[in-house]
Specification:
By secondary structure, this protein is an alpha/beta fold. 44% of the residues lie in helices and 13% in strands. It contains five helices and six strands, in the order βαββαβαββαα.
Length: 165
């Protein structure tokens, strides 16, 4: 499980909710966003380049992993790999609905450049936090059930079934 941690408001919740399911959580941030709280998770710090965090994640994430990020571009990049994606507001995307999000991102960027876009995203709220926790828990429960089924079958076949992400 990877987290685009630079501006993620739900890092602690991710670690706390994932722990009972034995998911390894990798929090990726740039050196300019190093925080004191480590949340008992694995941290990876990368250069401060504009897309450094995105590139680190995109180059390492694989089918079946989870990505938590609000970066629609990054989400659209990893979805074709079979990655499960969710935003810090609890919105899940798939190959069917990501194109709509990309279109909105394009239109908002166009409005910003023309000076007609009036406001940014709304402030992260308690309701957003609750929605994220509910949706994230549903996702990891679903994947855990699937993984446990495969784990039992794999163990019976002598395969290494340790969950890494």
């Amino acid at each position: 499980m990877y987290v685009d941690a630079d501006s993620c408001p739900v890092k602690k919740e991710i670690v706390d909710l994932a722990k009972p399911f034995l998911f390894e959580v990798v929090l990726v941030s740039s050196y300019s966003h190093v925080v004191k709280e480590q949340y008992n998770a694995k941290w990876v710090h990368v250069d401060c380049g504009k897309e450094a965090v995105d590139l680190y994640i995109a180059n390492r994430i694989k089918k079946g992993d989870i990505l938590v990020s609000h970066d629609i571009g990054l989400l659209s990049l990893v979805l074709p790999k079979g990655v499960h994606v969710i935003t810090p507001r609890g919105i899940t995307y798939d190959n069917e609905n990501i194109s709509t999000a990309l279109e909105f991102r394009y239109l908002h960027g166009k409005e910003r450049r023309s000076g007609t876009f009036r406001k940014g995203p709304k402030k992260f709220s308690y309701e957003d936090l609750q929605t994220f926790c509910r949706q994230f828990l549903q996702l990891i429960q679903k994947l855990s059930i699937h993984h446990n089924t495969n784990h039992i079958g794999g163990a019976l076949r002598g395969e290494n079934t340790r969950r890494e992400n």
